[in-house]
Write a structure and sequence with these properties.
The chain has 213 residues and is of the alpha/beta class. 57% of the residues lie in helices and 11% in strands. The chain contains 10 helices and 5 strands; from the N terminus they run βαβαααααβαβααβα.
Length: 213
């Protein structure tokens, strides 16, 4: 299947297979999937130190002192207003701009980083949220990270809490809530392949809608 217009954003619970779904979807649609790659691109586009993006990746920062210390690493901006912002805001704005630039370049898939919010005004954006049964997510993380059940569950709870806090802080929507997305799918029910197929069906319908307009 070839797509000409649609940009797909994927929000995901930790352990739901969201990244694997994005990668499989990208391969089948012949487009690029941006996950951690988005951080590399944002660092290059903004001139900010790449380490900043890694340290702040989908994590709200509450430490003002940490922001002041890390701010010394920033470079490439002359605006006094921008220079006075906490570094976590700078990182978010840089990612926000990069997400729009990537979307303007053509069809692609973006995982996390509030991409659906950044592209809220893009009619060609299809926003998806992947969730799953906690027990099945725990099993996935146990296997992927070689952790026992207790540690896997703890990692899931903490990661989801960070992602939710980040999303809720920077957007006007609520992380994981159906109203915040075009499509919400349970990967523990449909599996990776089944979830990919359902997203592809949604993409096909969205592509068809451009022809009808």
């Amino acid at each position: 299947m070839e797509i000409k217009n649609t940009v797909i954003t994927i929000g995901r619970q930790f352990g739901s297979g969201g990244r694997a779904i994005g990668e499989e979807l990208a391969e089948r649609l012949g487009v690029k999937c941006y996950d951690k790659e988005l951080l590399d691109r944002a660092a290059k586009d903004s001139g900010l130190c790449q380490e900043l993006f890694e340290n702040h990746d989908e994590k709200p920062t509450n430490s003002f002192l940490y922001s002041l210390v890390m701010d010394t690493y920033s470079m490439g901006y002359s605006s006094s207003a921008f220079s006075e912002m906490p570094i976590n805001h700078k990182v978010f704005l840089a990612q926000f701009d990069t997400i729009k630039k990537i979307a303007d370049e053509g069809p692609c898939i973006m995982v996390g980083r509030c991409a659906d919010y950044a592209l809220a005004d893009y009619e060609n954006c299809l926003s998806v949220f992947i969730h799953g049964d906690l027990d099945k997510r725990i099993l996935r993380i146990e296997k992927s990270y070689k952790l026992n059940r207790a540690k896997a569950k703890d990692l899931i709870v903490k990661t989801d809490k960070k992602r939710a806090s980040y999303y809720n802080y920077y957007t006007s929507k609520k992380w994981g809530e159906a109203a915040s997305y075009n499509l919400c799918l349970d990967s523990s029910t449909f599996g990776i392949e089944g979830t990919v197929e359902m997203i592809m069906d949604a993409v096909q319908r969205k592509e068809a809608s451009y022809v009808l307009q």
